[in-house]
Amino acid sequence: MDRFDNFIDGRFVPPVGGAYLETENPFTGKAWALIPRSSAADVDEAVAAAARAFRSPAWAGISATDRARHLRRLGEAVADHAAELAEAEVRDNGKTYKEMLKQLQNTAEWYHFFGGLADKITGEVLPVDAKDHLTYTRAEPLGVIGMITPWNSPLRLLAWKLAPALAAGNTAVIKPSEFTSTATLRFAAIAHEAGIPAGVINVVCGLGQEVGQPLADHRDVAKIAFTGGVGSGTAVYVSAARRLAPVTLELGGKSPNIVFADANLDSAATGVAAGIFASGGQSCVAGSRLLVQREVHDAMVERVVAIARGLRMGDPMHPDTHVGPVATRPQYERILACIAMALDEGAHLAHGGKPLDAAGPGLFIEPTVFTNVSNGMRIAQEEVFGPVLCVIPFSDEEDALRLANDSAFGLGAGVWTGNIGRAHRMAAGLQAGSVWVNTYRMTSQIVPFGGYKASGIGREGGADMIKAYLQTKSVWVNLNDHFASPFGPVQAAGVQAAGRAQ
Fold first, then answer.
1. 3-state secondary structure of 481
2. How many CA atoms lie within 13 A of 116 on its CB side?
3. Residue 394 φ then ψ, to 5°
4. Do 146 and 46 meet the contact criterion of CB atoms below 8 Å apart?
5. Which of 246, 342, 381, 472 holds its CA 20 to 30 A away from the CA of 135?
6. What pTM does this model have?
7. Angle, helix 64-80 to helix 154-167, in steps of 10 degrees
8. Measured distance CA(370)–CA(270) in Å, rounded
9. Active site: which residues (predicted)?
10. What residues are labeled active site?
C-alpha cells in the first residue's frame, strides 16, 4: 500500500510515534494507503512551524500585494492539478470523478477571489471628539488557524477556510478526516511548490481525539474553523471556549425542499432528486425532507421515484456513473441503521432501502424514498447523511413554514413555486442560512454560506468573510507636544522643574 506522511514546515515528515492508519477505497472496499496516526506531539510540531511562519519575513514581512500574488498562484496551481486532486478525492471518498473535478475547478476560484481581497484590507481614521488626537484602526491577522475538515468534500471545504485565512495573513494547521487525508496532503505539497512559504500550510493526519482535540485545545492556535457533525463540532466549541478562542462552525442539516402545487413539477422533481441523491446524499445541505403540497403529493413522489430508478450507480471514475458509493464504512452502517429505524417508525418504503451489491464491490446503498412520514419521526429530524429522502405533505404556506422550521437545524432550504410573491414570503420566513428558489445546492465564493440554530456559527464565503480571520486594533496618537494631566497642575514630589539649576 502507498504510505503518506504529515506535511509540516514545507516537507513530509513521519508521525512522531511511527504509527499509521489504513484508509479504504469505498468503491473497492479495500484498504489502499496508510496515513499517519499522529498525536499531540505532531500537533505541537505543526503549530510551532505555523507560528514561526506567521512571524517570518517570508510571510509576515511581505506586502499585501505579494500575499495576493501568492493566493492567485495557488489558485492557478489548483486548477492545473485539478484532475490529479480529483482522482485522489475519488479514491478517498468515492464521489464521482466528474463531480470532484468540477469542485476542484471551482475551488481554484476561492483562492483567486480572496487573493483579490488580500490587498484591500484596510483600517480607517475615526473622527473622535478629541481634536488633538489622530485615531485610527488596523486590521491584523489572528495568527495560527486550526482547520478541521470532513470527508465529503475535503479540498472544497478546506478552501472555504484557507483562502480567507491566508488572504488575511494567517497561517494554518489542517487536520483532515482520517478517511480522506491523501488529497489534502498532496494539495499542501502543491501549494508549497507554487511558492507558499514553508510553515504557512501544515497538515497533520489522524483520529479526532488524538489530533483534532489537541489542535482545538492548543494555546497557540488563535482560532478553529470546523466543518463536520454536531457532536464533534460541539466538542471543538467547548475546547475553544475554555481558552476564549473564536470559532467558525459549519455543522449538520436536515434541509427541506418545499414543493407547491403551482411549481413546475418536472423541474422540481429533478431538483429534489439532485438535492438528495447527488453525492449519495453526503452533503451538509442535502434536501433530505421533501415537503410537498397535498394536491401534488402523489405526482411528485412518482416523478422522484422514477428518477431514482434511473440513476446509475457504480465505478465513480466512469463518466456514465451518476452516484458512487458511501464514503466510509461507519457511515454505510449508519445509513442502513437509519433506514431500519424509519421502517420501525412506520414509514413506507416507496423505493430503495437496500445495499446494492450489483453496483460494485464497495459500499453502495440504493437511492431511498420514504412516504407516510410525519415530521416528528426520528428519520425526519436526525441527519442521515446518505441517499435517503422523507416525503412529508403540507396544506398551505403557513403549514409549510411550520414543518420546515420544526427542526434543530437550519442550513439550507429549497422553495419550488411559480408565485414570485410566495417565493419571497417563504424566503423571509424560513430559518435557514441559504434559501434556493426553483434551484438547489448552488454555492459561490461570492455568497455567504452558513447555518441557523444547530447548523453552525459564522459564515464562509463572501467578501465580509475575511473579517472572521482578522482582529481590529485601535491606535490613539496625541498630536500635542505634551500630555495634559487629568489632575491639573501638580508638582510631583522629589522632581525638580524643568530647567531649574541643580
1. coil
2. 10
3. -140, 165
4. no
5. 246
6. 0.94
7. 160
8. 17
9. 250
10. 250
